[in-house]
Amino acid sequence: MNTLVIGKGGREHAIVQVLKKSSNCYCFPGRDGFDVQSLQTSHVSKAEDLVPEMKEKKIDLVVIGPEAELSQGWSDVFRSYNFSVFGPSQQASQLESSKIFAKEFMKRAGIPTAKYFVVQSLQDTLLQAKHFSPPYVLKADGLAGGKGVFICPDERSLKENAQKIFEDQIFGKAGEKALLEEFQEGTELSVFILTEGKDYCVLPLAQDYKKLHEGGKGLNTGGMGAVAPLNVGSEVWEDIEKNIVKTTIKQIEKDDLFYRGVLYIGLIQTAQGLKVLEYNVRFGDPECQVILPLLDMDAAQLFYDVAQGNLPSLKFNNLFSCCVVLSERGYPENPKKGELISSSLTKDSPTAYLLHAGTKKSKEGYRVDGGRVLNAIGVGLTKEQARKRAYALLDSFPHHLYFRKDIGDS
Predict the structure, then answer these.
(1) How buried is residue 351: exposed, middle or buried, by Cβ count under 10 Å (0-12/13-18/19+)?
(2) pLDDT score of 308
């Protein structure tokens, strides 16, 4: 089977790692560190530009990693040329690309979620904030590269961030509207399911660490690490499956959304019960990096089956996995590119290895080319063993790179 992975981050490297075990894998645009062939098409501005080379390479399966390409309808374009695609349609991708679309979807389905108002200006935001007590949650409606959610401890902070969205327009069209939500306090869970739009199968639960610093402090990021599997107990899982997963799939079918791929459901366990924080229409990053090592089956065939509208039985090993993100010191606000990564990036083993998220190869070696630079992955018989193996990979990295030291502690 010839497979193609769209994307260039740590998530896509994790997907490439499992696909190349049983398929001839290509990527676009990919990175040098992926160690697979990239499509050579240049001047790509739309999905159609890749089709001639995809036909030449006889691609059997396309796996679209990033949300941007999904929201732009790349899956629909590739399907129109009769490629099998693991990824939902552009219409279904609005579950992630529009916070308002997702909230209205939850409301129709009766899915528990935070109370909210749609706001379109600074004045509107401050007016509706009177219905809530601080802290406030403000979310840009559209895709914002993981930076569109603000947790505001007081009205002053809310005003500053609303100004950034509506007056400074830091997110452009993605910030023409926003959600003002009631803050939810509790434990977050990441649920991933594979679906063909009518039924589903469940992947291992994962725990993601979003805050920049230890103890859940600092700025929100795209994710500083993750562990899997997470055991929440049968009672909690029954609640998740009955009231959230099945209800979500039922509404996808009712709304006639074409969905063949993975769906992420971000949950929080509050004192009032489980609530949905958000949907993502692709694998999370870095949750993908800890979920895929737990598959005990041919991943290429699995993704192909889902793309064809079939849901096979899933098989998992009995291992644990941990991902620690190595980021540039200025991440997430002002990451600097270009610095040399002096450590060796070749000390990999089946149970401890590095995934490239933001690197670029030069004559002197790999250099920083993104905010999140590398993912250290450890796999073991216990969570602690997996954690130790991941952290052992980070012992000799230079001081301009940063990582949290408590991933997997709780």
Answers:
(1) middle
(2) 98
Angle 10-19/299-307 helices, nearest 10 degrees?
100
The Cα 261–Cα 282 span in angstroms is 7
pLDDT in tens, 176-215: 999 999 999 998 888 999 999 999 999 999 998 989 999 9
Peptide bond into 29 cis (omega under 30): yes
b/e 143-163 (16+ beta carbons within 10 angstroms → b): bbebbbbbbbeeeebbeebbe
The answer to whether 88 and 261 are in contact (CB under 8 A) is yes
Residue type, 292: L
Residue 41: exposed, middle, or buried by beta-carbon count in 10 A (0-12, 13-18, 19+)?
middle
**28 with 4: CB under 8 angstroms?**
yes
In whole angstroms, what is the distance from residue 273 CA to residue 289 CA?
28
Kindly provide the b/e burial profile for residues 245-278, where b requires at least 16 CB atoms within 10 angstroms of the residue's own CB. bebbbebbeeeebbbbbbbbbbbbbeeeebbbbb
Do 336 and 328 touch, CB atoms closer than 8 A? yes
pLDDT tens figures, 57-99 = 999 999 999 999 999 999 999 999 999 999 999 999 999 999 9
Q: pTM for the full model? A: 0.94
The number of CA neighbours under 13 Å toward the Cβ of 207 is 19
